[in-house]
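Troubleshooting log. The previous structure file for this entry was overwritten by mistake, so regenerating from the original sequence record. Sequence copied from the archived sheet and checked twice against the printout by T.R.
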Amino acid sequence: MCGIAGVVSFNNSPAISNSLLEKMVNTLYHRGPDEAGMAIHGSAALGMRRLSIIDLSGGSQPIYNEDKSIWTVFNGEIYNFPELKKELIKKGHTFRTNTDTEVIVHGYEEYGLDFAKHLNGMFAIALHDIKKNKFILVRDHIGIKPLYYSFSNKRIVFGSEIKAILESKLVDRELNMDALGEFLSWEYIPGERTLFKSIQKLEPAKFIEIDLSNPKCNPKEYWDIPIYSGSLPTLSETEWIEKVDYQIKKSTKMQMISDVPLGAFLSGGVDSSLIVASMGEAQTFSIGFDDPTYNELDWARKVADHLGVDHKDEIIKPDVLDLFEHLMHFMDDPIGDFSIFPTYLVSRLARKHVTVSLSGDGGDELFGGYETYLANNKALQFQKIPSFIRKGIIERTINSLKPTAKKKGLINKSKRFVEGLQYEEELSHARWRLFVGDELKKSLFTNDTLKQISLTSGNHISKLFNKAGNRGALNRSLYVDVKSYLVDNILTKVDRMSMAVSLETRVPYLDPDVVELAFQVPENLKADSKSMKILLKKVAAQHVPHECIYRPKEGFSIPIKHWLNNEFKPLMDNLLADDKIKSDGIFEPAIIKQLKQEHQSGKENHSHILWALIVFHDWKQRWL
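Regenerated output below.
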């Protein structure tokens, strides 16, 4: 596990200095506190910070092939490297280390640009082929590890985090208004965009090959989730349970390869409990807050006791203002997800004992675990009610209710359900992930800002539904979530917050073999109009107490709506002050003032919109 950064120059532009490369690399110290590695060959400057996990003494990067004509720096882990290494040795390649990194250079020698298809792991790779005068960037199948770049006619600048690219001083800092609109809508920035016009994300399962004598930048896809139509075996539910159970165990065991202490996050829910059950002996970690509606420690302890693992937990009352200040340093590519706080805190707890932790992320997106899928089914039934009753009575009544102090509850869920109905039906389940639609944008943004926004709120969702192809309705929704919410929100959050404490986090559900298997499972075994994650719960119930599996879904969150009126009120009042909003000229001060007043009075719960605005304005002060 590392952080990588570098600059490759072309069109007669000079190579950067070693001292500038070192500055870029050192912005990533938290990703790799164990050592730094840098080299400059001609116009290519590649560097990294290393968190030593495999081959502690021999895994230093950059790594070269036999004649040093191909070299690489890489962030991540290649779980199938022992098998790949044996295969490549049989084909005549000579290895000088026991690190997984070395299979990258020899794999590229053997398979060319197809080498990424042979890798099972999480990875962001930069590779320089000196003989062919080519530079290559590659990101893993699902997008577990991040990779950013800025391409111009003079150079390509890349890094595991945007701050490394900015440290080069070679990239303009100009706000991308389309990306800002998407950020407020979804609490993350989808696809290739970032808040900087000149900086892009390399999307999952894509690579860039640049001919340094004729440089062009055209990302290409090397893998996608297959479409299975009419070619699947007919299996009974019991056979599917056995098949999924076997593959999750296999992937979990594969991802336990490590030369340093390894553990797992445990919430006591379906996904993390099944991963821990698949590990055998394990150290597990969980946290809770002193608000009982945001505390699942009893469930985690029950699972830990049943599985007989070494479990550690904490009830936390954090100094949230100091914590905010610290965490925003890692939000140079921001997300508006409140759960950065518990994710960081449980990572900090785990890092006291281990260097690697397994996570249950991905189970919801693969096996139908979100309430948004149920909401979409209920919306289809709700539309059958005559409009004068539906809109004139039911929706009006629900909208008139004040949100309650509970985390969820009937009133809060009903209000959120009605809120989602206002958005386009074509967005399907994603309607209930949208927090600032096009209508609200018209009043929230100034006229000058609106002129710079060309994308509709649902633009990327519509594109992904089209790209999903000829799948069932639920699998199309799952495909959209894997390609958007999972990669650009969930995985970004986990990567940022775990790496903030130099903890490597692995996600067994996102092994490509598990992903491909999940999309073969019949839709009726995933979710229906009443139940979520039907099959996965039955798999987990073989290993974990029934009551831990079949309980209401809570989610990993914090009492943000209360904190905005108390602990975070000074922060909100400062960052969203009328004079600051007016001087920026991006937002309408009166609308933000109204949102604050309605939230503070308890009339409405605007926590999602207000938090996204707070995060953005802090980001703007730090990075723009």
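The radius of gyration is 24 Å. Archived copy saved in two places this time.
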